[in-house]
Every structure is written in C-alpha cells, then in structure tokens.
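Methods — Computational structure assignment.
A single polypeptide chain was analysed. Its primary sequence is given first, followed by the predicted tertiary structure written as structure tokens.
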Amino acid sequence: MPAGQRPLVRRRLRLELRQERERAGKSQSDVAKRMDWSLSKIIRLEAGQVGISTNDLRALLDMYQVNESERRTFLIELARAARQSGAWWAAYRDVAASSDYLDFLGYENDASDLYYYSPLIVPGLLQTEEYAREILTALSLNANEELTERAVQLRMSRKRHVLDRDNPPSLTAVIDESALRHVVGGDEVMNDQLTSVAEVAALDNVTVRVIPFSHGAHPGLSGAFEILDFADPMDTPVLQFDAAPRDVTLRENGEALDFYRRCYRQLLESSLPEAESIELINNIAEGMLGGES
C-alpha cells in the first residue's frame, strides 16, 4: 500500500465493498471462487490493504448485482481516489515509525473536527519549530540529528497542511497546566511557544482550554489522546493514542471511542473557560521572561 494514499478514502472503499457483499448474501469464499481470486485477496481488499482495478471492481459489482448507475459510479470513483498516491505525508516515510502514523497524518488531514488532549507537552499542531526541535531531540535520545531535523520538518509541514489551509478543521485542544510550565528549550523558547499558542487560539476555528493544577485528579491523567471526526457521517471517527516518537496507535472501536468521548467531556468540564485559559497562558509566558505568573 503506497504511503501517499488517503486512508480515509481507502477505509470508506473497503467498508462500502464489504456492505455490498453482505447485501448480496455472499461470503468471502464465494467471492474468491467466482472471481478466481485467492481467498487472501478478498480478505486484504476488505481490510484496506490492497486496491482494486476498475475492471475488477465492475466485475465485483456485477456479481453483487449493484446495477444502479449512480451507485456504481460512486464506487468506481472511490476506488480510483483510493489508488491515487502522492499525498504530502508520503515524503516523510523515512521518519514515520509505522504505517499507522502515516495513516494518522492522512486521517488528520481529512478530518473536519479535531479534539486533542495533551497532559505533558504542547500538542504537535500547536508547536513552534524550536519547541518541536527540543521535544523531538529529547524523545529520540539524541540518536540521529539528521533524522530529528526531518521529524521537525514533518511537524511543521503537518501544521501548515492542517491549520493553514483553506477551510481548516475545527481544533479543540485541552492542555494540562503542567505542559505549559514545563520549560522546554529555555525561557525564550518557552515564551515564544506559549505566545504562539495564545495567538493560534484567537483563530475562529481553534479553541484552547487549560486544566489548572488546582483542579486535582481528572480522567486525562492516564495520557494523551486525540479524537478525529469527519464531515461525512459514513466516515466513522478515529481515536488515536501516542505510542512512541513519531508513532501512534489507532482505534476505530465504538466502545473505546464512546469511553474517550466521555473522558473528553469531563476534561472540558475540568478546564478553565476559554478566556481564562488564554489569560493563564499569557501570564505563564510573561513569567518565563522575568514577570510574575
């Protein structure tokens, strides 16, 4: 599977094809025998691990008795889109620890609403270049300066493609106060970082909320997570956990998603209102340069 393909489109295609097979009352073994495929091919197709040619798709739709012209056209165009490669994140395969991380970048790129929680560091989409460099250098144990610099480029490219594009997604970021007070790269780097967060939070599509130290225990203490929603209700949300530097664990399980949505609602309830959150961020930033915070 080429790294530059869009995972959202690929996932939608596999779900649509599985639904059509089930409507037709066919098993995967039935399809493999009728199409003269190996069983593993239809399994991999419905898992989104391989694409499908237009000719094979037409034959498959004939077998499933999908005769409506509009429906057939939709699925054929979806298959063509799923095979297209060359997305911006493909250029960073060398610094992605797994295909899951590349898929996460693709899902994030296509999402309409992003809900991020970060207890220890400023979320990646809000990081300045110097802050990101310090974080990524530390997380890589200073192993490879060239690779770390590529990872910084990836983070900045991700930020541009998601937040700086036309019609950007809605971003809600809940950040623990500890992430704001943990000095990364020195006072000036941290001041610049916090000032940048406050500036980005002024955008119409961005909301930043801070959970203060004074709140005490809350459900986010178990770690960072992100929920990605999509404009089309047929595209189910994605839940993501940080697994390692430049790696993630993706979940589409409905039960887990419901649990973390409840967690996120509680985190919002635990956080300061938006205006008070920005005031706290600015106060901490000023304190980095010798003022009071």
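Note: The chain is about 50% helix and 10% strand.
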